[in-house]
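hey can u run this one w/ magnesium ion bound, need the structure tokens asap thx
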Amino acid sequence: MKKIKNYDEIILEQNTLIILDIDDTIIKFNSMGKTWWEDILHDYEQHHDKQTAYQLAYDDWKAMINKDTPELLDHELFMDLLDRIERTNSKLILLTARESTMKEITLKNLKDCGIHIDPNDVYHSSFKGEIVKDLYETYKANQFIFVDDLLKNIEDVITTMKTYKIDCYLMEHENL
Ligand SMILES: [Mg+2]
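ok here u go:
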């Protein structure tokens, strides 16, 4: 695993399958800062049990995503990455832990950021390792790359992909 701060640190070979997370890896909501989730969860936990607090925080998060417009973390370098993906005959897949009922709003969020992607190339699952393994076995690529801002997702992929060769990047984006 390699820690990176922007997309220019991702090295692409010819015919690569690159799997990117969405939230805080390519897009962000300015209304929700770095500690937004922790703060809101902490507030709810003052008056509710843990499970209820989590549900309430999650509902708030969903409401924010539905009403807000996100932006790319770095327009120039992300567009450059898309360009490199095309030039190397590579394939981009997006993999989000957002539940699949959020498919439509997720596509809208991406469109609002200028990302026009085939809806079939956007996967929803919190079991990222399993999806990455399926993709690895489905696509005939020379190189496989997985990028996510959450260490637990990277660890899940590394554990599931033990016998496979995949480059994992932990995104700690400089503009977050
Ligand atoms: Mg993320």
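The chain has a mean pLDDT of 96. anyway lmk if its weird
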